[in-house]
Amino acid sequence: MMPVRFLGIDGGGSSTRAFILGPHGATLEERHGGPSNVIVVGEERADETVSSLLGIEEQFDAIVAGIAGADRPWVRDFWQTRLSRHAQTVWVTGDYRIAWAALTDGEPGLVAIFGTGSVFYAESPKHQIRLGGYGWKVGDVGSGIMLGQAAVNKVLGALEGWGAETALKDPVLAWADAHDKVTLLNHIYHPEVDWRSVSDLAAAVFRAADQGDSAAAEIIETQAALIERYFFALQQTADLPEGAPVGLAGGLAPFWLPHLEQRNMGSLCVVSREPGIGAARLAARYFYERQEGVSH
Known about the structure:
- This protein has helices at 38-53, 73-83, 95-104, 144-160, 169-176, 181-188, 202-210, 214-237, 253-261, 275-291; strands spanning 6-11, 16-21, 27-33, 62-67, 90-94, 109-114, 118-124, 127-132, 246-249, 268-270.
- By secondary structure, the chain is α/β, with parallel strands linked by helices.
- It has 2 domains: 6-106 and 272-291, 2-Layer Sandwich (Nucleotidyltransferase, domain 5), CATH 3.30.420; 144-244, ATPase, nucleotide binding domain (Nucleotidyltransferase, domain 5, 2-Layer Sandwich), CATH 3.30.420.
- The strands form 2 sheets. It has a 5-stranded mixed β-sheet.
- A hairpin with a 5-residue loop joins strand 2 (16-21) and strand 3 (27-33).
- Helix 3 crosses helix 10 (275-291).
- This is ATPase.
- Residues 7-253 form the ATPase BadF/BadG/BcrA/BcrD type domain.
- It holds the Pfam family BcrAD_BadFG.
């Protein structure tokens, strides 16, 4: 009899990572592939990525795939069908949920993911609640886009004379390859400019705030207050038990941690475990619980 193997997949718009765990949670193998977000690259390209990661007849006892866009039924159905070739038991979920699993091992808890966008997720035995994740056109609390957009607004105010001078001026103008208000706005509204690139300014906002720049500090304070409200809402509506873990994930998590700790929001941590490992551990948990008659 072959030893049990569990597969966790972390699939996004730029890369895909797969982790294979053995029966006792040991990581047996890690694999890397190209993009798998079918919304961005299409079904054919996503299928090619999976084929590059998994052997044609490779089988697993259970698979959990955390996929960007999996809240859309057609995305979830595509992945459910594609991965069912490799396991009889497949769960497809949002990428935010495997970040939660990486923090909690499937127990009650809350995770906030900060990158270009942001999303907040909490789960308990009775509740699964997601906040945010609206996308770049709307903007997400504490996200790189929201921070970068606020930085641009502060710099425009400084350039027009109605706002305070700010250390953000140099990084914003450099981002746009501009030297004044007109060239800055020309860059922003150029048809070939991807507005999501404004998230590249997020680190500069944190640096300026830490160095005492009042405009940058105001941006961080405004966003931190909104993050706190999201956390409070999730903790209340998800009915999380006292002491449930609260973690930050994503590229901006280390930047946010000290600023949120100052707000007395309880014990926070940066999630160190890979989301794909969280997915694989969740696959193992669900597999054994199903054998005991617990459904998911």
